[in-house]
Structures are given as C-alpha cells and as structure tokens.
Amino acid sequence: MKKRERRYFIKQSLLASFSFVVGMNIVHGRNIPIGMRPIILDENEFNGLPGKSNLLTILNDKPINAETPAHLLNDDLTPNELFFVRNNGNPPINIDKDNWFLTIEGESAKSSKTYDINTLKNKFEVVTYNLTLECGGNGRSEFNPPAKGNQWTVGAVGCAAWTGVRLKDVLADVGIKNDAVYIGYYGADTHLSGDASKESISRGVPIAKAMEDESLIAWSMNGKDLPLLNGYPLRLVFGGYPASCSGKWLEKIVIRNKVHDGQKMDGQSYRIPCETVAPGSKVEDEDMCIIENMPVKSLITYPQSGATIKLSQKLPISGHAWTSAKEIVSVEYSIDFGMHWQKCLLNKATNRYAWQRFNAEINFQKSGYYEVWARATDSLGNTQPIILPGWNPKGYLNNACHRIAVKVVDGE
Amino acid sequence: MENNRNKAPIDNLSLLIKLINIIVFLSVCVFIYLPMQPYINAYLKRPTYSKEELDSFTKKRMVFQEDDWDRVEHGIHVRTGMIYDANFKYIEAKCLSCHSAKLITQNRADRNGWQQMIKWMRETQGLQDLGEAEPFILDYLTEHYAPKELGRRPNLDIENIEWYVLELD
Asked: Which domains does chain A possess?
C-alpha cells in the first residue's frame, strides 16, 4: 500500500472509531490532520510551543508570548510547562549544551573570561533558590487609555526553584573595577527581522542588584533543564526585578561603568515616568526612568473565577503573594467590594523573592453574586491598590488587587 | 410443501450465519471499546460545547489549505483573525510580514497612538518607511482598532466567565 493510501485508510478508520465513540459525525472531521484528535478527546495536543502546556494563553506567536491562567498557578512551584513565556526575538536553534560558552568582559571588568557550563558547575558554589519572575507589563490589559504591547492579564508571573551559581561569585572571579555601576547581558536569540547585526533585547541591572545572594546564572528550573522558551541552556535570574532583566540564552555579561545601553534599555521600554502623570499624558524619553523593584502583588489561584457554591458551604481560597521587599507580612480578602477585609493565613517564604502561599475559608451570609478580592502588604508597608495604580505610557507595574467572581446559591 | 422442506436447511444455515454475524459484531465492539475506554471516559466527563463552538475549535486546528488562505467570514480574515476591508492588503504586506496579527488585534489606540507605534517601529525595530501605504494603514487601524472607554478599572468580564459548580468535600 502506498503511504498516502495507508494514511487515508488510517484516517478514515480513526474517524470512524471517533464517530462511533462520540456518537455523531465530527464537524469538519475530514479536515483534521492525521495525528490530531478532536479537542474533546485530547488535552495534550501540541500548541506550537515546545515544552509548554497547551493550557497557556498565547498572546502573540511572532515572537512567542504566552501567559498562565491564574487557576493554573496554584502549585507552590510553577511547573516548567506552565511557566509563562515572554520572548522579544526568536530563540536560538541547534543548541549544544556542552559547547555553550559564557563570556564576562566590559570596561569595568578587570579581565575577560569565558566559561562553559561544566566549569561554572565545578568552579563555583551551586545554589538553588525559589525565585518569582514577573513580566514588567503583567496586568497591562487593564490600563486606560490603553498601552501598546502584549496585553498581559494576570498570568505573566511564576515562581520556580532555580539552580545555578551566584552571579557575584563569577563576577568576582573576573574582577570588578571600582567604577562599575551596571551589568548588561547578551543572549543568543535573534532579532525578529532576521538582521543578525541587531539584538532583540539586551538589558541588565545595577551592580548592587547583581551582587545580591539570590542573583543567579542558572541552568536548571525545578530540577530539570530550562525549557527552550525560558532560556535553555543558561540564563540570568533576578527575583524582584522585571523579568526582562533576567537574560535568556545567556552568552555574554558586560560589566559597565555606566548604565547599560543595550536594546530595550532606552527610550520608553521598561521605563515609567520619573514623576507621576495624569492618564494619557505624553511623556518625553528623558522624563522616563528605568523600572527597578517590582511592586507588592498577589493572585488568587484557587478556585478558578466562576465558581458556584451553595450557601451552606464554606469557600476555601488560596493563592500566592510576592514583593521585591524583604517579605509579605499580610494578605487580606474582601467579599464586599473592599468595605471589609479579613486576614488570610500566610506562609513564610523559603527565601527572599519567593512567593508566599495564603489560604482562607469564607462564609457567605446570603446568596448572590460576589467578587473575592485579595490584597497583600509587604514589610515596607506597601499595599496593593483596588483600582489601577499610576497610569504610565507603556502600561507597566499594574499591581491592582486580583478579583475572582463567585456565585452563592441557596441550598444545603 | 416440497419447497418448504427444501428451504429448512437453508433457514438453519441463515440462522447460523446471523448468529456468527452477531458474535463477530459484538467482539468487534468489545475490541473497539477496550482501547477506546479512556476516550469514552474523557467524552463522558467532557465539557459540553455548542455546535458553533465545536465548529470553531475544529476550524482553529485545521491546516489551512490553499483555498482557505484568504478566506473571509463574517467580515473577519480567518487566517489572521483581523477585520477585513479594502485596506487590509496594506496591513498584510507591511505589518504581518514582520510580526503577528495578534500584536495588532490585542491592542487599541487612536490615530495618533498608532502613528506613534509606527514611528517607534521605524526608529527602533528596523521598519522601512511605509510610503504611500501609511495613510491607508492608519485609516484601517483607527477605524477598526480604536480604544474602548474602560474607566479607571473595568468590571470583571462577566459575559466571558464560564460558571461551574465548585466540588467541595
């Protein structure tokens, strides 16, 4: 039998058996490519994102940007296949992990050194931290007037156990001059235009941030290799800063004697007005300041919005809260649109920049439509606003409290 | 009489064949059922979809054939999900050759806002001058992807919430 005929036969018989099971004809059944099954039969179909669950919401496919629905972020550590993806360019292809090199240099570096991943593992202390990464533009979709860019809702965030070496150990091995103020990264991802001379993104952090214990050069996420779309085989991880600082497919770090001037460090990218402005204001580039610390925030990850319960039942809620400050000190919830707030039980963080679990059980006195709101407060006394925080032209740093809808119906 | 007598063995044979047929059919059913059992369970526990929804799921998963490439349905260019009008050809040529249609359809801006985005792409992203196409592109974007008034914080998107019964112990 020729291959095509065989495929046709297999397809026909598969279709017949599907129809047998489903008990009806499948609409457009003939157009389902071989190897695919109707959605009601298979949740594991490939969505075009290698290593990623097809439950992610794809915002953009060129470059790939995908977020995690809030109710899928309930794990203490976000599984690799559910971790959000924010790409600026195209990931590199044909990666050879054993021949991957990281070079450290720059005008404020005392020398220039190149390491492969094995050398990093053997030469420096290997550490693991639970670190929360959140895109600076998470929550952008709520801004009004709207801000351009990927319209993230709430799920451009995740917390994973990252394993690697401390950036400060590697920088010390190269030697840092006294005039160092910033580090910048370069990755192997390519510009969308295909122009090899262009960087898709090359950002960085102030030297003080680079020298923190939790600032990592990481090769592992939750005990496994990094997913390709999250920077395989090597990346930076800075908890508490916009995730765009945590360069992926890491090939080079430069120690700078001035603020790094790579792609997306300048103009309006990852910047907010130095002074607060009225919504819709035009702000000149020179009046925009680089975002450093991310604000206090939380997410209700259980139950999924849309839950219906009976009046006799208690509603358990759960979620995570995170901050760039030392820790979260309280999480509260409200079921009456912010008039009253009740405290949730709150777990301690495993380390700085890890998110903290909160739980509560809610009693409802009357049936009706409710929204459960959650707000976190950190050790600096910062609390999440109920409406949107300061408008900014590019729609960054929306840390307004998360809301889920719940219906309570009469009955035992 | 004689005819009937002659038919009797044939009747028996046909009964036998029918029996064998039923047995074969039943065992085929069992053989189909066993490997399909997980799917049957998945089917029984499936969320229910309307015919239109099923239709759209299937459509999304179709590999676009040659004749689907420029299909327009209900004013939407199916392959890109963008609103279709006479100016769409400029969008396809000048915008979608570099980035996803989703980058446009998820955004909203007035004419000036779209112009600023084009300026930004030209200055930082290597976009070539759009030339004579630019006013048509701006017409298209301003008409179809204008801002909606949302207030300081929009309501939860009640219409799109999928209500479900939360199973609790």
From this structure: 1-45 (no CATH), 97-290 (3.90.420.10), 297-409 (2.60.40.650)
